[in-house]
């Protein structure tokens, strides 16, 4: 198949959407498909080239003034590649792909990576829509996307080409006992809850240290909060780290206090290093932790329970060892090969159902016939899950 992946950028900044796209493109090229990534670029171009994936510069922005240029650029790309599948990972790319061609020779597959955004509903423009967890799938059905046009392919990072052959980078020697989180500095990531929980924990475990790996617009506010809570001396804001494996490997407990999380890749990464994990029971997090078998789940917005759970795992060696062992089990479920296979299956079935090339050929021969143009845009009546 000839496949085009669309995203706003290809920067190595810890963006889970981009990381999933890069993994897919590399695995699909490895399987013998002709794969193109179209984005504003930013860092992954060399990796893509090494895996036989071409990168085409196609800036994508929701600003109305840029729509004509994006449409023209996308049409040139389609004319050059003649894809079988266009896979849009972000809203802008999905809308441009849908609106740029009335008589398409390709099918449009969209992935909903973050259901907390209202704009996620616009991903329904795809001939088939993919959710990255069962929780996201349920939310998309609630918003009106027919089950017959929806599949779930759960995220995974095991075997990612982004880290293949790369040694674990050096990192500062962490103090112990320590709690580590790897997360963007956003209020919705529950960083404030984690800081409040750690302030309570420090009274029970005075020598505990907290490491926050990540950056974002709320970092200054979180640093100020740490000072207000009296834990600034025990809290280290490490900033963004492209490869956080060294931090994960040294963590006594990994914590993720998100208020919503579709299917956080970092949970796979933490499990791969055999970390003890505490995370909130929201979104797709329970699915990433085998419904609590591979990590302890706590309510969101509940610093007291989070603190008590962290304290238990920092002080109870038996509970700590048992949970660490379970975290490292069943990791095949989260392999990038499984993710790629799932998407390829969806591509094939969507092509078979929609038959876009047949409709495009008829439309080309017959001219602009409204009925045929409508058939080109029609969604399949039924698609099975991968």
From TrEMBL:
Q: What keywords does the record list, in alphabetical order?
A: Transferase
Answer whether the UniProt record assigns the keyword Ribosomal protein to this protein.
Answer: no
MF GO annotations: glycosyltransferase activity
Q: Which stretches make up the Glycosyltransferase subfamily 4-like N-terminal domain?
A: 15-156
Gene3D superfamilies the UniProt entry points to: Glycogen Phosphorylase B
* CDD domains from the UniProt entry: GT4_GT28_WabH-like
Superkingdom field: Bacteria
Per the record, the coiled-coil ranges are none
- This chain's protein is named Glycosyltransferase
